[in-house]
Fold each of these.
Amino acid sequence: MIEKYPLLNEPDKTMFVFAKNGKYYGHIIKNKTAKAAAKFIFETVKFDTIEALKAEYPEQVTAK
């Protein structure tokens, strides 16, 4: 895993970014709650860059 980040329009889901054969893809996971375990939702298509992946699946930016 290269990185993980919360998705902009879906705050209850997290993107986990992976690389394979020079391409980048992500697994979208529904976050764990008090009543349910974390759950794999789907795998994205492969992108040439992480920036292209983040353009399609934007990161939620939080103020620090």
Amino acid sequence: MRTNNALRNKEQKIRNIEKAVSRFSQKFMSNSKWLRLIETIVDNAQEFKKIEFKKNPKQ
């Protein structure tokens, strides 16, 4: 069961996502696809934090 605070946080996150997406003038994906993509990224944030990158040697 979610508390009111948790629901408000989720709604705020959705508003922030919609605000960020609206800044782009051209739409390459529909809003629903953007939401699905971003929600998937957020849901799997712990996996992304585990990714380590190697620095490229100076060229």
Amino acid sequence: MTIDNNLNAMISSELKLNEMASNIAQVSNTMGTPEIQEVNTDLIDSIVNQIPEVISYSANANSIKTQNAVSDILLNIKA
């Protein structure tokens, strides 16, 4: 796996998270006052689907850190 793959996956996760956040904000804006806001399936799906996206984003970031550490070690060994 290369850093490019991880960065592309992170960008994809970011776009999905932005779309879900937009869905959540749209429900909030269209419903008006909090007392009459209803929980619908779009809102629930947007909230629940954020969980794996956040985990994926974090995993890709950790993978990049690991790849960087391995590269540093290999460069130190070579030097």
Amino acid sequence: MTTTMRLTPAIGGQRSGSETASRPELEPIFTELAARWQSAGRAVPGRADEEWTILAHRYPWPTR
């Protein structure tokens, strides 16, 4: 016998299809955080990361 369990969010409940959630108060927080990370030289989601690009393009095995 197969049982399918439907998971629901623990906080907030489910929204109806016509309901939209706007959170303009959160944007400045994340914008400031991204600016701080970038000024500290850290990776910022949604922006190119030069170090990762270099590492990802390297050949994974040492050459002789």
